[in-house]
């Protein structure tokens, strides 16, 4: 028997297991029954970040709620590699894209950071977290990365866990991509703002024993492009694309 | 003397050289003098795709036109590698992103293609070409890739130049990224639509001697993410990021 994954995938905060009943929130019921027009007997895929992916069947469909019943596990639980993606928030649409792309590309945690040249004083963490959830539903992941609150880069570096390597993209070293050291274990990638990192930040980063500068080719990349390119280099060198 | 590049970069269809005068179109004059508020004596960077980048000075500024004079060459002419990016047009915003990213990432030619699962019957070639020009201005390139008209993939493959290798992303082979063969010379990358390529297309592509399937990790990437990831792998393996 082939276990097929239904087309609609939904992240739920509920235990999943054989014949497990899962109650739906008003928003989820609206999406499944109002927007997607599902009826009793229809199938959706569920994941919760710990129990893998399950094929579930609509048992009750209402305007304000509903119940799904798990029928079969369709994918085991998998975690993305232990990789953080640090980025300086930019314009709304591109910030949304960076969050979406980080999830698709398999970052485990997303940390918006305030750098010297970051204009944003605040972010809408809840909105970015919802984007991350949507991206996980869409890309077939069984895990939703946490989007942290906005933190100052200097404070983050002051408390940095020393066993976590940090790859940062140094525009001043434009040209050939520098090879990433093949160090296993936890990693992070820092994507600066469109204005680049400041000279003080550059000096500080280069002095950190766990930080590794790489260049991303001879052209100047926008922050969202740089995020995907850096994640690709990391994933093919050290991550789950190997 | 340091030759600094001015912050505003403009693509012009005009020869560039020492003391060369460059007349501005109405749109260019509006942008420089109306939007960016430049006045006589201000400096901009010009490139035309053949003569490198030049620092030019505003000599005349009018509402409907103006003149710039080239003062010094600030970058030599460089071409991106001989790489085509074929993609199936998707929703407007993501199509725009793919064009923008292809330019930043150094594709030399951008070809929208109609595949079995492509919904678009037509594209606005002029709008996409304008996007490509803007991306080249922004990313520091001295070359603007041509955006071709929409072509059917089967017709393009029927006339394919056999010395051009083709890398395509096969979702059916999700998992580890397959290594790209280290074949020098002209290349192309094919990014399928969000619905993937059809079984018939897959069979046909796998049978072509110049086509190479690669996988882009264990998650399903959106077309715009896949474009940047595939371009990164190509550029670091065979292109100008080496």
From TrEMBL, chains A, B:
* Cellular localisation: Cytoplasm
Which domain of life does the protein's organism represent? Answer: Bacteria
Annotated GO biological processes are: rRNA base methylation
The answer to whether the entry has keyword Phosphoprotein is no
- The record places domain Ribosomal RNA small subunit methyltransferase E PUA-like at 24-65
Q: What does this protein do?
A: Specifically methylates the N3 position of the uracil ring of uridine 1498 (m3U1498) in 16S rRNA. Acts on the fully assembled 30S ribosomal subunit.
Q: What is this protein called?
A: Ribosomal RNA small subunit methyltransferase E
